[in-house]
């Protein structure tokens, strides 16, 4: 059964995009789990192009330019800093941010809870900015800090997919959602009926 409402956030995973072939199809590195997910907010990018003729809107076409957003997490994992942000780990285990670091693009999946089952999402091509550094003095009660990561989500370079969404009744896809690679879309051929 389909959810009526969604809430909560958990199971954030990312897959580094290690290469892209000549057709724009990505190859992914090993999945990285991101614990301590607090919030994800994404807003659609794109507008509607309108063509006026005969004193009306004769043609209109929406553009899908992906999403912009922000993820808040308890603390950015070391593996993410190295694999995605391009930080260097020196011989003493110190993480070093280089001015020449080139962050990697990645796919990201996560789930929202629902009244019937958890709903799972995947965004196929993301890029990210470095997290801000912020803290404050401890007062009467301890409120943990969070780190905010600004994320841009674009269509894949093969111009095929931006995101996918699945609920638990799609068991085959649902059970593999956080596997070795992001969910790969299976497009069934369209069956046409006779005229």
SS-based class: mainly beta
Note poorly predicted spans. 189-195
What's the assembly state of these chains?
A: single chain
Q: Look at the structure and give the mean pLDDT.
A: 86
* Helix and strand element order: EEEEEEEHEEEEEEH
Strand count:
13
**In whole angstroms, how far apart are the ends?**
34 Å
Mind telling me the C-alpha Rg?
20 Å
List the helices and strands and how they pair.
Layout (H helix, E strand, L loop, with lengths): L5 E15 L5 E3 L3 E3 L2 E8 L3 E6 L2 E7 L4 E7 L4 H6 L4 E2 L5 E2 L9 E9 L4 E10 L18 E7 L9 E4 L4 H5 L20
Antiparallel strand pairs: 1-2, 1-3, 1-10, 4-7, 5-6, 7-12, 8-9, 10-11, 11-12, 11-13
Would you summarize the structure shown here?
Helices cover 6% and strands 43% of the residues. By secondary structure, it is mainly beta.
Question: Could you walk me through the main structural features you see in this protein, from its secondary elements to its overall organization?
Answer:
Helices cover 6% and strands 43% of the residues. The chain has helices at 78-83, 171-175, and strands at 6-20, 26-28, 32-34, 37-44, 48-53, 56-62, 67-73, 88-89, 95-96, 106-114, 119-128, 147-153, 163-166. The protein has 2 helices and 13 strands, in the order βββββββαββββββα. It has 195 residues and is mainly beta. A hairpin with a 5-residue loop joins strand 1 and strand 2 (26-28). Strands 1, 2, 3, 4, 7, 10, 11, 12 and 13 form a 9-stranded antiparallel beta sheet that branches. It has a two-stranded antiparallel sheet with strand order 5-6. A two-stranded antiparallel ribbon has the order 8-9. Residues 189-195 have low confidence and may be disordered.
